[in-house]
Amino acid sequence: MDEATVNLAISTEERILRPTSRASAVYDCDAELIAACRRGEERAMEALYHQYKRRVFGLVTRIAGGQDAEEVAQDVFVRIFRGLPKFRGDSALGTWIYRLAVNAALTHVTKRNRHTHAGEDALEHVPAPAATPRDPTLAARLESALARLPAGYRAILVLHDVEGLSHEECAAIMGCRIGTSKSQLHKARAKMRSFLGPELAAERSSSRSTTRS
Amino acid sequence: MRCRDIDRLASRYIDGDLDEARLSALRGHLRGCSRCLELVEDMATIRDTAAGLEFLDPPASLWRKVEQGLAEAEIADANRSWLWLRWQAVRPFLLHGAVAVGAAVVLILWLWRPGEGPAMSTPIAGDSVKDSVGDSGDDGVHNVSELFIDRSDGSSGGDFFAMRSRELVEADRRYRAIIDDLRRLAAQERANWPADLSAIFDARLAVFDREARQQKQALVVRHGRDRSTAHPTAKSRDALYAVYQAEIDFLQAVVVDGVVIAGRDPDQPGALP
Question: Which residues of chain A are within 8 Å of residue B11 when distances are taken between CB atoms?
Answer without folding.
Answer: 182, 185-186, 189-190
